[in-house]
Amino acid sequence: MVATTSKCARPAKVALASPNSKPHRPGNSKGHRLANLYTTTDMQAELVRNEMRSLGFHPDTIALSEQFISHFCALAPRAEKHQATTVYLRQNREANFFENGANGDVYINIGGFSDFDENSHIFVQFTLETLSKKRGAKLFTIDWDSIEAALDQTFSFNTATQLHKYLSLFDYFHRKQFGKGIGFFSKRPIIDLNKPPNLYIRPGNVELRAARTILRHPENLEQIAIDIYKNWDSPEFFYEPDTSDDVQVSDLSFSIRQLLTNAGMYAIDPPSLVASLHGWANRYISACFTGSEILLNWSYGMHTHAVRTAAAENGLRFGPNRRVQIGPVLSLYEQLAEKTILLISPFATTCVKTVESGNVKRLWKNHRVPDFKLIGLDAYITTYPNRPHRSWLETFYVLCSRIDGILAQTEIDLVMGSCGCYGLPLMDYCYKRHGISSFYFGNLTHLFFGIRQNDFAQYMSDANAEFWANPFHEISHKPKNFNLIDNGRYIVGE
């Protein structure tokens, strides 16, 4: 198990001279060097205190501030040309809490904040503001590979959630300081869909939070299901905001309700809902353990680790998680060339028409779309309050049967999906049952086939909008409440 607290630099212990001792002469003794070290350390600590005061912090009233300052003194001010340019957030059990790097860069072991957990929000804010406003830092970034390597060696749920907490705090104060979330970098390989069959997955945060609740609090599911059906006709109940933060996920009802409102979990009564929740979670976790995860966002990765360690608490064991990167999103077109693709999506019919009409070749101003064949399987939209069958499990089995029928008649090279909480279980089924490469990228999959949505606004400056389709024109019965999911990101704005 990895230690939750990194090795930290401690202030040097200095032997003070007695009143009767002789004065030390420069360059003449070890005692003089120690006295200089004491003076330097003391001056650095006072400088840090003054920086705290100038930024509105009061070290005399903040618990453990002196201990924190002793660590922060490792980042002594440097000459202007050596000021910090990049701050790297990492986790390395062999490194100190704070370290100076080459060219003035700074390295921070985020696990070191566990010694100051009660006031970690204060010290994270101080660290970010001091390094950016006082020490010349221009970029903060997460060294994801080091954090993942540390988490891959632990089965501690608390370790995973603690590191998530500190990264989230940096992200929050980074947004306040720079107007955007904190970035990350990784040397994980770029996805290659031309390799032998594999399972590639992009888990969703809604699903991961729900899976975590099911794993860690199964005793609460029955009452949550009962409450859901007592309030089935109350949209106010279903869309009530979260009462906990994204790290703790302590609002258990919210995490399950979101699985219904945002991802498609459903059933006609409490027992069927509990059965579907367990059946879904088993399949979802199986996909997470089997697949190579597409690294899209650092917070997704932290939620995945929380689920994996929660599963370990239930006796499941796993090896290091395999992750890949997508690279430039639209470069994925190159890997679709000459393939026969099965697309599982509520909008599959519209996507097939876009491909067969040739409009897929006209979607972009500056991107070439290769030739490929697309076969569609229309998935059901089962987000609250839409219920096509008796439960999620029944709908899942219906879709598996239809997949079996298509694959019995057609040779498929790749399965792609965008279908909420059905996605990973169906991709896992296609890969394990039929040995076919399966790729789950979530809603971004629709981007490649010209589905017009609010979610794709950032890409539309390079798009020929007249060739993009509104998928609801192909659906005879528009699903209820679809516009309420994530503030309408999946619909076309008026």
Notable characteristics:
single chain, 494 residues, alpha/beta, seven-stranded parallel sheet, 12 strands
What are the SSEs and their pairings?
Elements: H1 30-54, H2 65-72, E1 86-90, E2 98-100, E3 106-109, H3 120-134, E4 139-143, H4 144-151, H5 157-178, E5 183-185, E6 199-201, H6 205-216, H7 221-230, H8 235-238, H9 252-263, H10 270-290, E7 292-294, H11 298-313, E8 323-324, E9 340-345, H12 348-356, E10 373-378, H13 392-409, E11 414-417, H14 423-434, E12 437-440
Parallel strand pairs: 1-3, 1-4, 4-5, 6-7, 6-12, 7-8, 9-10, 9-11, 11-12
Antiparallel strand pairs: 2-3
Helix pairs in contact: 3-5, 5-11, 6-9, 6-10, 6-11, 7-10, 10-14, 13-14
